[in-house]
Structure formats: C-alpha cells, structure tokens
Amino acid sequence: MRGTLSNRLEFLMAEGFLHKKQYQNRPPRYEYRLTEKGLSLYPWALMLWQWESEWAPGDNALPTMLVHQGGNAHPLNPQCVCRHCRKPLHFDDVERVKVADVADTSDPKSLPESWGGQRRTRAKVSGDIDTSLAHVVDIIGDRWTTLVLAGSFVGLTRYDDFLNNLGIATNILADRLKILVDMKIFSRREYQVNPSRMEYLLTEKGKSLYPQTMTLRQWVLDVMPPLAHPYKLVHKSCGHDLEIDVVCGVCGKQPQIGKVRFDLD
Question: Which residues of 214-238 are buried (b: 16+ CB within 10 A; e: fewer)?
C-alpha cells in the first residue's frame, strides 16, 4: 500500500496537481499541497460529494452537510449550472451538434481513441481505509467503467455499439455492463427476441452523474490545450455551447476553498 501511495503521489506531482514541502528535517518528512492546477478541480470534488450524498447507501461516512460561510453561513448544495443562462444542468437538456468546419473523422457516436488506451482492473478497496466515496469511486475509479458511462452519455445503448466504438474486450465490456446494471446506473431492455438482444439505458441515477462528468469536462476545457472535435454540446435551454459553473444552491455564488466547511453533526 505504501508503494502504491508513493507512486500516486509522484504521478500527481509530475502532472502538476501537487507539490512537496519539507516540514521536518530529522528524519526528513514531507507534506503534499495542492497546486493551482490541483485546486482548480475543487468544483468537481464538490459535485462528487453531492452525488455520493444523494445516491450512496445510507451507511457511508461522508459528512452530512457542507456549510457555505460568508455573511450568513448556510447549507451548501452544490449545483452544476449553465454558464450562460444559469439554469441547472440536466442530461436531457443537452444536444450533441455537428460542427460544419471541422473534419469528421469518426462515427457520430464514437469517442476519442485516446479514451480506450491502457486497461485497468476494477478498483479494490481495502477494508481498513476510509470508504467515504467508495460508491462513486466504484463507478468512475475504473477506466473502462468510466468509458462505458461516457459512451452512454453520447448515445451508445447496445452491446455492439459499445464494443465497436470503445475498442474494449468482450469479457471486460460484459463485466462493466453488469457492474453498471447492478449499481442501477443502467437498466436493461430487450429490443430483439430471437435471438435475444438487450440495450442498456441510463436510469435517473445514471443521468444524475452527468453534471459531475460535465464539471470534469469543463475543467479540461479551461485548463488543458484546446482540441478540435467534429461535435459540440449545446444547452437546449439557451442555445449556447455548453459551459458550466458549480454554484451554491442557496446563494448562487461559486464556492471557494476556505469558504466551505464540513458539518459533522
């Protein structure tokens, strides 16, 4: 476990999310602090907490409330809203539109090839560590599970669609689809009787993962180099290209680190 932790910390430093600072000389001890790049993921962390609080089993160890401090402290219910019209984001309110001036090099439902690279096995969680976010990590902590979920967000529903677009091995795909059905992220529906064929549809629980997924997408758009793509996302409520902010559901302001605390009561 120490070796795994050390590797993860080194990776996060190499990618610019953490920096190391010595706080003790003998023996040398270090602490790891978030960089500006790491801090910029704070809205996504808030959305992870919000989803886990709403959908995880009742025995999770998360704080039951976030408090937004300021003039008048109040409960914080993080919401993902459109940056233009400020309406809360819902999966059914977003449309995928072709961009005319970008070369179309892929199928309308296909995903970037880089999404299907290194394979990872399903995460194992030791029984002696904090599992506060275990429910959501079971979904997004595995590359292939996340990829299948992302595929569903762009319209993939059938086994062959996932198989042909994601470049995923048949046994891994079957396992990840079963996981997502068991976790009630997908429901199964028969669309052909002989032979029997099933399609996998997002449940309301599955659709509720869309805002936190789009929060991470927005981080990529804001922080990473731009990447041309033949399709864009449009918020149907206002007609603008989809850009999002995470705001406090009570006051409408964007929560800042240092202005939010956990209420453990």
Answer: bbbbbbeeeeeeeeeebbebbbebe
